Amino acid sequence: MKPKQRGFVLIAMSVTILLLLAAVGLAFDLGRVYIARNEAQVFTDAAAMTAASRLDGTAAGVANANAGVARLPMRWNLGTREFTGVIVEFSADGQRWERAPKDAAGLTMARVTAPANEVEITFLRAAGGPKSLTVPARSTAASNPVRLTQ
Amino acid sequence: MRNKKQRGHAMIELAVSSAVMVSCLAGTFQFGYTFYVYNQLVTAVGNGGRYAAIRTYRAASTKDIEKGAQAIRNMVAYGDAQPGPDAQPVAANLTPGQVDVRWVMDGKGAPSAVNVSIRDYKVDAVFKTFTFTGRPGVEFPFVGRYAPSEREP
């Protein structure tokens, strides 16, 4: 081997491995990210409808809404992890949202946010990608009749 | 010109690197395809759950309840409650029989929520077969009309 050719295989291998990791990462890591986003969106849809369906103009209705969302059995990360840090908010006009409204009389809308779905990145990280990606989801539902609005 | 020691090295290197490359590509395809199908299933059960949540629950007889459940299964499997004869499943080889529909009843015997999940669904990723049972699954509140004495049309 000529002196100029020494080390070429090492460089070529490094570049190839990096490209290979990127390709594997695109399929594996992004696949998981898309699934997590979809799972979170379906969860917040169900949770917002659950919360809106419990609103009855009383403080007990708000408590029932929170309890109903907490009781939902849905999971994410291929159905293996529970949703954590779920935020349930209520509103009378769709403008001002409160987690613990003092007056429950006029509440007609519920909004649920699942903010903490952090997908760990395995392969893309090795190719210079981030360590993790957070895929939040949010849905809004109105009561009477109960329906998703956003 | 290569010397005697170098002869055959290229062949061995190719054999070793090919094994690594093929394994990587097979794994990439296997997981990529499985994730793709799983994502389709998540969307399908979500659509089925939303449909079940708002449809009228007719319970004049067990036949009516079963007819309603079949419409929900069809919605998950085909994206249509009353699919035509040439309807295609939303995920490869998914059948209505692989969709579980379970109603959650309140103290008065009226439906309060509906659970929709996938049962015994196999993803054939060529190199390996993955089986999903009980997931993906969703639970939506029942917000439709409860008609205990009305018959399914």
Q: What key attributes describe this structure?
A:
heterodimer; A: 150 residues; alpha+beta; four-stranded antiparallel sheet; 2 helices; 8 strands; 40% helix; B: 153 residues; three-stranded antiparallel sheet; two-stranded parallel sheet; 7 strands; 21% strand
Would you spell out the secondary-structure blueprint of this structure?
The complex is a heterodimer of chains A (150) and B (153).
Chain A: H1 8-54, H2 59-71, E1 75-76, E2 81-82, E3 87-91, E4 109-114, E5 118-120, E6 132-134, E7 137-142, E8 147-148
Antiparallel strand pairs in A: 1-2, 3-4, 4-7, 5-6, 7-8
Helix pairs in contact in A: 1-2
Chain B: H1 9-54, E1 57-58, H2 62-78, E2 99-105, E3 111-118, E4 121-124, E5 129-132, E6 137-141, E7 146-147
Parallel strand pairs in B: 1-7
Antiparallel strand pairs in B: 2-3, 3-6, 4-5
Helix pairs in contact in B: 1-2
Could you explain the architecture of this structure?
The complex is a heterodimer of chains A (150) and B (153). Chain A has one domain (3-148). Chain A has 2 helices and 8 strands. Chain A has helices at 8-54, 59-71; strands spanning 75-76, 81-82, 87-91, 109-114, 118-120, 132-134, 137-142, 147-148. The N and C termini of chain A lie far apart (66 Å). In chain A, 40% of the residues lie in helices and 19% in strands. In chain A, strands 3-4-7-8 form a 4-stranded antiparallel sheet, covered by helices on one side. In chain A, strand 7 and strand 8 (147-148) form a beta hairpin. Chain B has one domain (4-147). Helices cover 41% and strands 21% of the residues of chain B. In chain B, the strands form 3 sheets. A 3-stranded antiparallel sheet of chain B has the order 2-3-6. Chain B has a two-stranded parallel ribbon with strand order 1-7. In chain B, a hairpin with a 4-residue loop joins strand 4 (121-124) and strand 5 (129-132). Chain B is rod-shaped, with a radius of gyration of 24 Å. The relative contact order of chain B is 0.19. The chains are: A alpha+beta (150), B alpha+beta (153). The A-B interface holds A 20, 23-24, 27-28, 31-32, 34-35, 38-39, 41-43, 45-46, 49-50, 53, 68, 72-75, 78-79, 145-148 and B 21, 24, 27-29, 31-32, 35-36, 38-39, 42-43, 45-46, 49-50, 53-54, 113, 115, 134-141, 143.
